[in-house]
Design goal:
With about 170 residues, this protein is of the alpha+beta class. It has a single domain, classed as Sandwich (Jelly Rolls). It contains three helices and twelve strands, in the order ββαββββββββαβαβ. The termini are far apart.
């Protein structure tokens, strides 16, 4: 039997990354799970959250630990996810996003299977101390293009910010 040791990530450990103003902490990566899954702790400030995106071969799930986020998905009405809500985005490439429309920080736990999205966060974002936030920088055409290429490298596709307003 090939056994590995139990992996514990203490509350003050794990790589913390700032991306588009949100702060993500990698709890366990694909490197630790043989690529099966990754878990990411997410702090989403007011008006924060990822823009519309999709990933064809990644199953992504969120659990709202604290706060409120508005969840948007292709072909569905938006959904207000409050503390205790669970959101599951199946494989297949459905366009989705979420946004913190409240005045306080939202705290989410995210699982992705297979892993890989955590590598996108690490490559596209910048290191921060867990709990700190960096204001999002202005998205110039060059920065948008770089982010788009990194997303594609990590099996994702980005869509315009007004995708759900159409």
């Amino acid at each position: 039997m090939d056994t590995k040791p139990v992996k514990i990530t203490p509350p003050d450990k794990g790589k913390a990354i700032s991306l588009v103003g949100d702060t993500y902490r990698i709890l366990i990566s694909g490197e630790d799970t043989g690529g099966y899954y990754a878990a990411i702790d997410m702090l989403i400030p007011p008006k924060g959250g990822p823009g519309p995106h999709s990933h064809f071969d990644i199953h992504e799930s969120f659990f709202v630990i604290e706060g409120v986020v508005e969840v948007y998905s292709e072909g569905s009405d938006s959904y207000t996810a409050r503390q205790g809500a669970f959101i599951s985005i199946p494989k297949g490439g459905i366009v989705h996003s979420f946004k913190n429309e409240s005045d306080s920080i939202a705290h989410l736990l995210c699982y992705v299977a297979p892993s890989g999205m955590e590598n996108f966060f690490a490559e596209a974002g910048e290191p921060v101390r867990w709990g700190d936030f960096k204001s999002p920088t202005e998205m110039t055409p060059e920065k948008k293009n770089k982010l788009k290429k990194l997303a594609e490298k990590h099996r994702q596709k980005l869509f315009p910010s007004d995708f759900f307003e159409k």
